[in-house]
Amino acid sequence: MFESMFRRRILDNSLGKKSRIVLAFDEYGESNSVLERLNWVCEHLGEHLACIKIGYPTILSTGLSELRKIIFRFRDENLFMADVKMADVAHTNSLIARILYETGFDAVISHGFIGYKGGLEGVFKEAKELNRGVVIVVSMSHIGSTEFIDPNMEKLVQIALKHHADGAVAPATRTQVVKRVREIVGNKLLIFTPGVGAQGADYGSGISAGADFEIIGRSIMCSSNPVEAVLEVKKKHDRILSCRAC
Ligand code: BMP
User: Fold this and answer.
1) Which of 72, 81, 164, 235 stands 20 to 30 A from 103 (CA)?
2) What is the pTM of this model?
């Protein structure tokens, strides 16, 4: 199976750091304090994280040029994923993806429901040219996902597979969806599961359902001791993974 650079790097990182955690960094507010917080995360939590996912609240607070400096400072030991859930026409998606990859992001998240022709193709084109990652949302952790997205989940997974995405986002809050995605994709896609912690799913619920990674934000970032919180999650994941191996 063809292994993209992002897939290889995140799996190596995960193995080396013994971590299935993708930290959702969604800090916002005054630019310098957000940047300082990100710097702190890279220095103190980075050794325990498979990847750092940065979302709109942060990107809109800091802008890209300062963010770029931090990403470039820490990118040898850390992976960075831009969570902008693209959902535009190909030309615009292509510009957004290029700007984010040039900022140093290793992967971008895009919605799948826009379809490939004239939509997702812009993202895949940039990813291919710059050898970076694409992760497709196939189901979401909030209940509204069952209205429009989930009835099309299997088609979204097929688009991700057909165009060689690196991974899919599926909800730890509805583990039957994660299990079904795993049944369809085998080991061809990495599965990233948000919804753990602050949104109510237990630590480890995504991994137990067959996901590769859990996306976790507030329950780590808002805890009084984020390092301890990360270590607690890792312990939970270790227990589940060692049971899976027996
Ligand atoms: P938290 O653990 O604080 O709820 O953060 C979850 C993160 O995952 C947020 O960055 C959110 O935007 C993202 N996310 C989600 O919660 N549900 C989805 O279906 C897809 C996401 O990317």
Assistant:
1) 164
2) 0.98
